[in-house]
Amino acid sequence: MSQVSAGLEVTAASPRGSTTAPPVATAEVAVATHGLSKRFRGGQLAVDGLDMVVPRGSVYGFLGPNGSGKTTTIRMLLGLVYPTSGSHELLATAMPSGAARVAR
User: Model's pTM, two decimal places?
Assistant: First the structure.
């Protein structure tokens, strides 16, 4: 596990049970984030520079205490909240501009 935001820990396990995922080709990636950050209007930093790659078929968990950025990260991935900086892709589609394509 590695800490990626204020107390948020992210872990991945491949379908074979390995907890360390090797680098994967873009077509095999379900979720990728690059420097994803969210700062709310009051100045509170919820997510700070999140970089992660989740291969297709993996089970991924968000673990951390209240206020560590778990829900904010998921909301950004789904396009419900816009990141302050950084980018992310779902199923090799840039988000949030590709949300309609991913929803199909």
Answer: 0.71
CATH topology of domain 2-103: Rossmann fold (3.40.50)
Calpha distance 32→21 (Å, rounded): 13
User: Residue 28 gets which letter from DSSP?
Assistant: G
Q: How many Cβ atoms from other residues are within 10 Å of residue 84's Cβ?
A: 15
Whole-angstrom distance, CA of residue 58 vs CA of residue 29: 10
Q: What is the pLDDT of residues 38-72, one digit of tens each?
A: 999 999 999 999 999 999 999 999 999 999 999 99
Residues in the chain: 104
- Which strands make up the sheet holding 93-95, listed edge to edge? 45-55, 29-39, 85-90, 93-95
Check: CB of residue 12 under 8 Å from CB of residue 54: yes
Contact criterion met (CB below 8 Å) for 49 and 37: yes
Q: For 17-38, what is each residue's pLDDT tens digit?
A: 444 444 556 669 999 999 999 9
Whether the link from the prior residue into 23 is cis, omega within 30° of 0, is no
